[in-house]
Q: What sequence folds into this?
């Protein structure tokens, strides 16, 4: 599954760069960089290959940790993730995104990937 899945997206994605640890159980499976984040998922660039359809735990440093599944690969080592979260966790992600937009969250370990908000 490597095609464009823009038609399947339900949420705005906020372009943001942060470090990501990809966990398989208690072991770090891969390390990468966050490309964008939404309440439903994220896009990351991974230094190691990830398996499509596989579930991992994604620890986005300074932001949070969520379970998710790899739903697509693009640009070689970049991956689209769908978080497996309930509505309460989605609201937590919403609050994090709003705090970042309002400047209320310490984002010293993160940098904006682009100065604009994109909808996919």
A:
């Amino acid at each position: 599954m490597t095609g464009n899945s823009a038609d399947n997206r339900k949420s705005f994605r906020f372009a943001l760069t942060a470090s990501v640890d990809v966990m398989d159980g208690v072991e770090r499976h891969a390390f990468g960089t966050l490309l964008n984040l939404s309440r439903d998922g994220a896009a990351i660039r991974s230094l190691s290959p990830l398996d499509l359809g596989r579930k991992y735990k994604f620890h986005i440093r300074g932001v949070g940790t969520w379970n998710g599944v790899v739903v697509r690969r693009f640009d070689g080592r970049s991956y689209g993730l769908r978080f497996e979260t309930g509505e309460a966790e989605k609201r937590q992600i919403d609050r994090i995104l709003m705090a970042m937009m309002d400047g209320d969250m310490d984002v010293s370990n993160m940098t904006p990937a682009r100065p604009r908000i994109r909808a996919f």
The chain is about 15% helix and 40% strand. The longest helix spans residues 87-102. Residues 1-7, 107-120 have pLDDT under 50 and may be disordered. The helical segments are 87-102.
